[in-house]
Design brief:
heterodimer; A: alpha/beta; seven-stranded mixed sheet; 11 strands; 14% strand; B: Rossmann fold; 10 helices; 13 strands
Chain lengths: 314, 338
């Protein structure tokens, strides 16, 4: 278990570092929001979800997608706008969908959508639990409170995971979030657990007990993880004092924390394997073709995409 | 007499009876109240557990419905007044309308949002608007408006059961109490149904026995009902013969019936209850001009004035186009030298 957790953490770390290293080369479109420093949240929480459970993520979704089991090659390809991307290059970095994983780049509105999914699964009596990730910045969006209210009124099987990295783009939480974060959930009668850690085992344990409650009681729960963002919001837009970031990297690194549980040999082997995996995934995505538009016959103005040698994603 | 309201209510009941994946969310929709305009009457009694009365949370319920639709249900959302649809704009534009396309056709979002638009009841600036034009240019979002020429309830049932994409179903407060047109009511007209697309009919109307029309009037929803009255008055009082094209699917645009009629008449007038600028008519005229080139000799839009809708009756009548404005504008248009 410790080895596989380390592999998952290190895979996200290396994926995100590769993205930032290669962005200046112009291989990716748009922008990116890396998950550096927060890896343990995704690995700890999603690792406790059942196979058919739903995960809804946000703009900072690469870590969630990889922890869910998504393919690094398909994710690189999506960032590169390639036909072999998770969504064929249509969505890019923030808009992913694969199996029961979804993400969207507009904050706030995601939370009602995920809450509706939980309502649908309750209605279908499927036993499927929904987990939705939001950040401290999203607490400014009113739509989430509409969703929390409905989730509590209708007792929906959903876990709200608030990753508080203390900074929304460049705005520190103390300039944007008044009052208590936990009280935002408990005010609606949603039991909330608050942890301040970057240790994947602690997160895993907290998420495990909350998901079990959501599943057995068909009721909402919230998990607040106080965490640390090592990288910029996207690229080159980190306005924090470099010393502050250096201190976070020294004290709060989930990869280092988990590495301490491995022997040097175990660690080296996993790192070599993951480095090779990420390198190959990057090369594979780089050599994939771009999709092309062609006019569709279906209706006025509709366009369909043509794929050259589109591989199976699953 | 079958009214639009009965028909829509029956359409909802039929959709619920046919497919248990159909769910309804809305404010004050439970019996005995049955919705502010009674469209959902009886539904919560017949299908308890499938009708959710919601908090006053338009953004939340439309977002939730998008999530439900993506997970295999067929949710119907009632927004009490069309004006409130702006509260759900993000859920519609950045979520519901985007998912299928940006997720590379890997998901479907069969969500139907029903809402009544329209004024003439003195409700004032925030409860009388016709706002669907704000959503006509959103790729991935379909917009439908029923007409008494067809069967609104059937159109609604079919949309709920068959739509694969999010659809705004635009009702109108004054249309609710109108009777469905049957052959007796339509005795003075020649009415032809044409398929505008695979899923929504369009209709052309001319006064029975009239000479060939010299003007095409395009309209939908309640304005099409007023335009039908204007058609008779133009014919009987002014001997001006027009052909009315009534569309039920607003987007994706499928304007072939308008092009065909305007090609015959050379003159096109659009009539809508929304405000004039950047409206439905502007797009219809632009597309017709592009399609017809110099076969389109005359063109005119008639719409609400570019102001909010006043509460005071006499003022409201000046702001919203009525039968008289349709006639006056039509007469001006055909007198225009070309």
């Amino acid at each position: 278990m410790n080895l596989e957790l380390y592999r998952s953490l290190f895979r996200i770390r290396r994926f995100e570092e590769t993205v930032l290293e290669n962005f200046p080369k112009g291989v990716f479109f748009g922008t990116t929001h890396t998950y550096l420093g927060q890896e343990a949240n995704a690995v700890g929480v999603i690792g406790q979800a059942a196979d058919e459970d739903i995960v809804f993520s946000n703009h900072r979704c690469h870590g969630h997608f990889l922890a869910y089991g998504g393919s690094p090659a398909a994710l690189f390809a999506e960032l590169m706008g390639k036909s072999s991307g998770v969504c064929g290059g249509r969505g890019g970095s923030q808009h992913l969908q694969w199996r029961n994983f979804y993400s969207n780049g507009v904050q706030g509105g995601i939370v009602p959508v995920a809450t509706g999914m939980a309502l649908a699964e309750k209605q279908k009596k499927s036993g499927v639990v929904t987990t939705v990730f939001l950040g401290d910045g999203t607490l400014g969006e009113g739509a989430i409170y509409e969703a929390l209210n409905m989730a509590a009124l209708w007792q929906l099987p959903i876990l709200y995971v608030l990753e508080n990295n203390g900074i929304a783009q460049t705005t520190p939480a103390e300039l944007a979030v008044a009052g208590s974060m936990a009280a935002r959930f408990t005010a609606f009668g949603i039991p909330t657990l608050e942890i301040d850690t970057s240790d994947v085992l602690e997160i895993r344990s907290a998420a495990g007990s909350l998901l079990a409650e959501v599943r057995s009681q068909t009721a909402p729960r919230a998990l607040i993880i106080h965490t640390a963002r090592f990288g910029p919001h996207s690229k080159g837009d980190d306005t924090r004092d470099p010393e502050v970031v250096a201190r976070l990297r020294r004290d709060r690194d989930p990869v280092q924390i988990q590495a301490a549980r491995l022997t040097l040999q175990e660690k080296s082997l996993i790192e070599a394997q993951v480095n090779a995996e990420i390198r190959e995934a990057f090369e594979q995505a780089l050599s994939a073709p771009y999709p092309e538009f062609e006019p569709g016959a279906a209706s006025t103005g509709e366009l369909t995409l043509r794929y050259a040698n589109r591989p199976q994603l699953s | 007499m079958q009214t639009v309201l009965n028909s829509l209510n029956q359409g909802l009941h039929a959709a619920f009876a046919t497919d248990e994946r159909v769910i309804l969310l809305g404010e004050d929709v439970l019996d005995p109240y049955g919705g502010a305009f009674k469209v959902t009457s009886g539904l919560s009694s017949a299908y308890p557990g499938r009708v959710f009365t919601t908090p006053i949370s338009e953004a939340g319920i439309v977002g939730a419905a998008a999530g439900m639709a993506m997970r295999g249900l067929r949710p119907v959302v009632e927004i009490m007044f069309g004006d409130f649809i702006t509260l759900a704009a993000d859920a519609l534009v950045n979520h519901a309308a985007k998912f299928r396309w940006m997720y590379n056709d890997q998901v479907r979002v069969p969500l139907v949002l029903r809402t009544p638009m329209g004024g003439r009841r003195g409700y004032g600036p925030t409860h009388s608007q016709t706002l669907e034009k704000m959503f006509l240019g959103v790729p991935g979002l379909n917009v439908i408006a029923p007409t008494t020429l067809g069967n609104p309830g059937d159109l609604l049932r079919q949309t709920i059961l068959q739509a694969e994409d999010p659809t705004l179903f635009i009702e109108n407060k004054l249309q609710y109490l109108l009777p469905l047109q049957d052959s007796a009511l339509l005795a003075e007209f020649e009415c032809r149904e044409i398929q505008q697309g695979p899923d929504a009919p369009a209709y052309t109307l001319t006064v029975r026995g009239a000479p060939p029309p010299v003007l095409t009037i395009a309209a939908y929803g309640y304005m099409a009902e007023l335009a039908r009255q204007a058609l008779l008055e133009l014919a009987y009082e002014h001997e001006v013969f027009a052909e009315l094209v009534v569309l039920t699917r607003l987007t994706p645009f499928g304007l072939d019936p308008v092009f065909a009629s305007a090609r015959r008449t050379g003159a096109l007038m659009t009539v809508e209850e929304g405000t004039l600028s950047l409206g439905w008519g502007a797009e219809v005229l632009a597309q017709t001009a592009e399609a017809l080139g110099n076969h389109l000799l005359r063109a005119r839009r008639l719409a609400a004035l570019d102001t909010p809708v006043p509460a005071s009756g006499p003022l409201e009548n000046q702001v919203l186009p009525g039968v008289n404005e349709i006639m006056t504008t039509a007469l001006e248009l055909i007198k225009t030298h070309v």
